[in-house]
Design goal:
The structure is a single chain. By secondary structure, this protein is an all-alpha fold. It has one domain: Serine Threonine Protein Phosphatase 5, Tetratricopeptide repeat (Alpha Horseshoe), CATH 1.25.40. The chain is built from eleven helices and no strands. The relative contact order is 0.06.
Length: 221
Amino acid sequence: MQYVAKALVTLFCLGMLIVAYRWGVANVHYVKASNKLKQAESVELANSNVLDSVKSSVDGMLAWHPSHPHYLNTAGTYYERLAFANENPVEKNKNLKEALKVYQESAAVREVWPRTWANIFRVKAKLGEFDSEFSHAVKMANLYGSKDEFVAKELVFIMLRHWRQFNSQNIAVAIEQLNNLTDYNRFKNVYEYSLLIGERAFFCNLVKLNSIETKFQGCSR
């Protein structure tokens, strides 16, 4: 009996060592991928070989730990950056589909992360898919991130570009999230973006009709 107990303890310790090793190796790949993606944030680097060197790190971390939400989100960021750098429409669409897939997997693992849902509706918008899945992602991002600035910025900026494709529920959520951006500088950024894309009239009507209060007075001019 004593030998059986020792054997079980040994097996348990061995199992823990294997798990720790897998986590450690996966995390090394994750750190490498994250650092390289930060290097590729600018337009210049997005079109360089930096992104190509990220793939091995992305593949490595998912090979060792395929269901970690952080790793899945990092993989999604990689595929989105790849889509941005890709001039071939077919390949760009393929990259976005890959990004959507890993973001969906991340949301399935950890539903309560609002920024993952924001990633999903952002990619859906890039694909031009304003369907029930888009609306569900908007709903979930708002449910778990009603005060999250990242969610607010993503949704409001997408609404300004694509409000004609938004249903009434999505617009209502976007208006709710706009109230997270009412300080002077954040609201000014949203206003200036509406000017840039020719949607000032829509944006300012939205602000006035919903009595959104802000110290930035661009819409009152």
